[in-house]
Design brief:
The structure is a homotetramer of 365-residue chains. Chain A has 365 residues and is α/β, with parallel strands linked by helices. Chain A contains 12 helices and 18 strands. In chain A, the strands form 6 sheets. In chain A, strands 13-10-9-14-17-18 form a 6-stranded parallel sheet, with helices on both faces. A 3-stranded antiparallel sheet of chain A has the order 4-3-8, with no helix packed on it. In chain A, helix 2 crosses helix 12. The relative contact order of chain A is 0.11. Chains A and D meet through helix 6 and helix 12 of A and helix 6 and helix 12 of D. Strand 14 of chain C pairs antiparallel with strand 1 of chain D.
Amino acid sequence: MSFAPPDFSAARFAKSPDAKFIPAPADGVLPEKFFSTTNLPTYVRVKGQWRMPREPRMDASLVLASDGEVWVREMRRIKKGDPVAVGYAEDGSEGIFVHSEAFLGEAAEGEFKFMTSEVSREKPIDYAQMARLLIDERARGGYPIWVCGPALVHSRARADMTWFIANGFVGALLAGNAVGVHDIEASIFSTTLGMTSGGEATSGGHGLHMRAINQVRAAGSIEAAVAKGIVKDGIMHACVTHKVPYVLCGSIRDDGPLPGVYTEMAAAQDAMKAHTVKATMAILIATALHAIATGNMLPAFVTGKDGSVRELPTICVDSSEFVVSKLKDRGTHQAFGVVTNAQDFMHILRLYVERELDARKGAPK
Amino acid sequence: MSFAPPDFSAARFAKSPDAKFIPAPADGVLPEKFFSTTNLPTYVRVKGQWRMPREPRMDASLVLASDGEVWVREMRRIKKGDPVAVGYAEDGSEGIFVHSEAFLGEAAEGEFKFMTSEVSREKPIDYAQMARLLIDERARGGYPIWVCGPALVHSRARADMTWFIANGFVGALLAGNAVGVHDIEASIFSTTLGMTSGGEATSGGHGLHMRAINQVRAAGSIEAAVAKGIVKDGIMHACVTHKVPYVLCGSIRDDGPLPGVYTEMAAAQDAMKAHTVKATMAILIATALHAIATGNMLPAFVTGKDGSVRELPTICVDSSEFVVSKLKDRGTHQAFGVVTNAQDFMHILRLYVERELDARKGAPK
Amino acid sequence: MSFAPPDFSAARFAKSPDAKFIPAPADGVLPEKFFSTTNLPTYVRVKGQWRMPREPRMDASLVLASDGEVWVREMRRIKKGDPVAVGYAEDGSEGIFVHSEAFLGEAAEGEFKFMTSEVSREKPIDYAQMARLLIDERARGGYPIWVCGPALVHSRARADMTWFIANGFVGALLAGNAVGVHDIEASIFSTTLGMTSGGEATSGGHGLHMRAINQVRAAGSIEAAVAKGIVKDGIMHACVTHKVPYVLCGSIRDDGPLPGVYTEMAAAQDAMKAHTVKATMAILIATALHAIATGNMLPAFVTGKDGSVRELPTICVDSSEFVVSKLKDRGTHQAFGVVTNAQDFMHILRLYVERELDARKGAPK
Amino acid sequence: MSFAPPDFSAARFAKSPDAKFIPAPADGVLPEKFFSTTNLPTYVRVKGQWRMPREPRMDASLVLASDGEVWVREMRRIKKGDPVAVGYAEDGSEGIFVHSEAFLGEAAEGEFKFMTSEVSREKPIDYAQMARLLIDERARGGYPIWVCGPALVHSRARADMTWFIANGFVGALLAGNAVGVHDIEASIFSTTLGMTSGGEATSGGHGLHMRAINQVRAAGSIEAAVAKGIVKDGIMHACVTHKVPYVLCGSIRDDGPLPGVYTEMAAAQDAMKAHTVKATMAILIATALHAIATGNMLPAFVTGKDGSVRELPTICVDSSEFVVSKLKDRGTHQAFGVVTNAQDFMHILRLYVERELDARKGAPK
């Protein structure tokens, strides 16, 4: 694609002044309001003429040569007294015009910016806001659904997940057989897939998840295994004892499965949808399969009693940007991505929720 | 954020008809032109009234109940004879309106779509187009700069890179000390970091790259090492013998370094910029540091002699989406991302260039 | 953990000579056989005494000071005439002992090496060997199972996959509903999830995969859709026309599903296992779920008629190291990891198979 | 590779009994001590003969058929009364032998295990142990070096990093120009690369890091900028006010740079090495370049005054497994990998250190 230069005879440029140049105060130092360049086509008005600076690049300054030519110069190459362009405006109103529309299109709202990607490990995570959301949902009787993958269990975020269930922050838990299996394996044998909480593979450990499944199958159901004291703590235990509904869906990689796992996929989807239609918030942690399955069923919005709609807050946590992008590529545009691991996410989120609860307790009425 | 329902008394809805419903031809089968749902707020006109369907989700159909209620139903749950909404339009012109603006904003041009992410391993790579670009650049005397990381050498894409240099597709090569070191190690010892081309770590191999550096230092320069027959093939050999300019920049992780490596960073940047100002195309392969450094210096455009500007084609190849996103987050918006490994990229690109050259040879004038 | 110094009175050190030092030939240049250091505890024999060099680090040399002290020195800091230790042996037989056992354990066979990780994008991929394996399997009547994820279809490796099926390299194809859906969507509409082969999201495209499913459901089966000319090319078409068995397994994220998809997970596992028990080779491409499911069922070995066993060649292709590591962490230790994208893998593998076939044709008998 | 069956006439098998089979207590339920299969060649002793079970796979049980054949059977396919093999031993001592050596080699210590990979996001992170290490180091006057990338600043872990510096846990800080730049940008403008702490790109923000650099260059040094009140808080401020030594190394991607940045790479390496030679612990966060550079210089051990050596604790934090694996592939075998993001790591580590300090305060002497 080729673009013609802007039409500087247009009305919008009629009042543009010449760019202003100020001498650099010292070697390698720019005047305070220096114009900081971008990598886009740029035009500088000098003696009534719009000129393109030479050697364009971003993060540099504009220096006027004695012959009227404008050069893009790195800060470190500036000499004391060099005439340096000043101004922040990129629309020509201070004599400098950055022709950004054609290049950036609407995505960037016509302005050169850094850090515009939607999902990145380099973006800060606002735990305080998520904590407030969760507490508000609980207060208003919302129905937050939590969707988890087994990494949550392997990474030993069980205790934190259990805390959220026990404290009323979970409307329903949607997961796969593996979450149930390794949670129960951890309760019975203190391992997950034979790995200790210290991350060590144990001798003979490869059969422990099978033994856990077998004990629950012998008991007849997860509920029975809890009642009989076989399963004493953890996520499934908390769901059973706190009467939080859960759906465990099967897949082709399942061992067992545990009793109660939906092994027929139409039935499994129906069971999930019974909760997604009620959801007022969704938290998807460390699972591509279940996150995308839930995203498929989840409206992007919640409808109020007055017919107004609001976005359904959807948080997707994964160690890589890929899962969140994939979820968005499957149409769950509203997902807010958090790139971190499950253990840390759960731990900090709980901490912030506890802090916010303390703060609200102490607040005057 | 909360949104009011659309104002259906507005002019744009004046001509909207009732939605049309057609009986499903069989259990689990929809009429051919069925309306396929999204996860966005949707309104269906039934007997003059706009209704929101119940149980909204994407990838489903709209079924009219006898009481006038509209339900969102999965294909598999459809019964023969169910009245199913038909039509493709989402703007109300066929009686169905998807209220997408508020939710999607401009990024999606106001339309629900899948696969809108910019960079993804799930996107096809158009090697044919890249091959044509490269051949066109060569034909018109362009100046494509290639920027490479050491993974290109470790993965044994040396032969393909050498071919591009030898055949006039490389204006200049920008890389780090490690590319030079392991390329020369491969020429002298057939290993890179002591690893064979079969991917095996060799006994005593950890010192081989140091011995390679030492031989070049003893020779005095890379050029001298080529002249003396110490370096017999590969990337650096091709640059020297084909007189393709190269810049090797230093970093804190360098061993040696090789003679000729720029170890002062201002000088290194100046040496790179001597090529970026001439660049008409940029190919960045398997390097975060050098890709971002080059991106910093590279204009997003090429200026023609007539003052018109065109986008500077910038291809960024990496095994993960992250590096490309990071590059874009640092302002190199024009980068086109290819998510693959260096070996495969180079191999296929060369194959397509060879095919295109053959095709052009055979073409009638 | 703390380790005592080695017992240098032990028999193994009885014949150790003093280390040999040779003057550096020039500033910044080492004698040819210089000893290249590691980061492990190292002992140098000087005048009968074992000394630890000062300032230890890897990739450096050992210089003897006039007071008998040994210093670790970077190549660039060497001055002409500095006495530099020479020798390659790290076992004390040339007067230098690297105490590696305690630190590295068995994993590294007691030797300091680079590039020892099992799975890395920096490792070369030996397509020639994979091509020979596939051709040998075909020649001997083996049963290679191919397990694919939808990225293979999105990335437009359909044509290559189709070629492998048509040419007898596929014993059975194991995949999910999505592979079938998007393959058939590509055949009917030339899109996958509404994305063109150029990677662009299309207007109205979000419903195309649903329309593809609907057409096959209306036809009654994939076989019927092929027979009726609805599905004219691609992976499923090739399986049907070349009578290559396939298994499509369901999951909770499925739309439709296509007729013939196993939606009950026990039945799905049984259907997969009917092929895994016959497998003599496995190629797993761009799928975590199906790769791990197959790995669960797959023996690590093939048993010959004489009772001898050989490793079952298992190739796992993914864009990230994570899936391969996860597969190994689930016990499929024999998996060989290829870190690249599906499109490129398929394209190059086919190319190498074609070349090898040509080479074998031309070979004298 | 092909392996002969084990020699069962060998002495080690002389005392092997027949395998013991026990009836399954119910459909789909195994006897408690059931033998859990692996995917490796397995031999079961039945009536004095060693037999290979049919249809081998992992995570299943062994069932004896009436004709003496042994079948591998999934738990769900077991019928009440099926004779199921019991025992945990895989060495033949209970009549079942798993021929693992040939297949697994030394890496797995000859035993089939799950979760043996070295670095994985699925492994739990032991923050308590890291906290104890840090406090112990401070107590004994150790010299922990911290090596950070700019993601630490972008993700707003500045406050936590500042806390560690202020409280005596940092011997020296090694970083690049970008860490200094964005830390100071955050202090002056509350943005990093123009992004707010809420993760939003700001209008006009692309120049803010350049303005921050310019202010420090105008002041003459970072120390002067702190003294003049230009830089009021953050990482660099803490280093200056708490007299914690820091090294900022340059690279080709640097803007500015800040005064005091080492721009010559040999000098930069020397400046880093002045700290690595004193290091008793190393924490590498969110940086490939600086982590590998530091790893190159860092011994794998610390030498005590008595000549004993202990491993130098080296923690490497990154969002992907790749950086840690790459570090190990460059010889820093001792690195312990933590796969998470910088913000969360810093936050939780500080929390655990504070808790441990509180606990120690309260402890009786």
